[in-house]
Amino acid sequence: MDIIIPENGILSKSQVSTFKRMLIRAQLQENFNKVLKKLGIKIYRNFGIENIRIPDSKISKMAVERVKDESSEILFNHCFRSFFWSTGFSLSESLNVDEELLFVSSILHDIGLTENHNHVCSSQCFANYGAVNAEEFLRQNEFDNQRAKQVRNAIALHLNPLVDKSIHGNEAYCLSKGVIMDVIGANSFQVNKDFVQDVNRKYNRKNFIKEIMRDFMIKSISYANYLNIRFYKL
Question: Which CATH architecture has domain 45-227?
């Protein structure tokens, strides 16, 4: 059921149908998990912001510097929040992840939305373009080729409402959930309110919805129309 958005961002009729089914499945799954949690059948691990470490490797620092130089503060904060939400889901579900891989995927996932890439992403899907661009950046800076491919795949899939971790790995699964949580609040019930408040305090959300809505309408072409985003205030 995975859809990698076409290069031009325009979904075919069959992809639209598949995507709508994915949206319905994602919402049903979220609601079902909420019920299981309320009944005490499904338990999510508790944690705080202090339990999440930002990797301090050379490539992690280079990724941060690049995004800091190329993006607005609003987009920069979104990328960091996405990392905290993504890692939060890995903790709440007790999933093993490559922390460095998840971090660079989170930080670089919206590189296609930055001004430097407007000339390309105004006419094609920013997620696909950003995935390729991130992979090239990592390879140029001596990141392992196989792990660079995993980053590319995770970024290319991050707009999907459902990502199968058994196929694409825990990092792609968590990145998709983290990014979507930051935009529409999906699955936020899995993490505690203090954690959400601490992250939002550190990486503020001011004007985020306004900017991301504008970028989606401009650079996601018809994808945004089918997504029917219900923007959410965390």
Answer: Orthogonal Bundle (1.10)
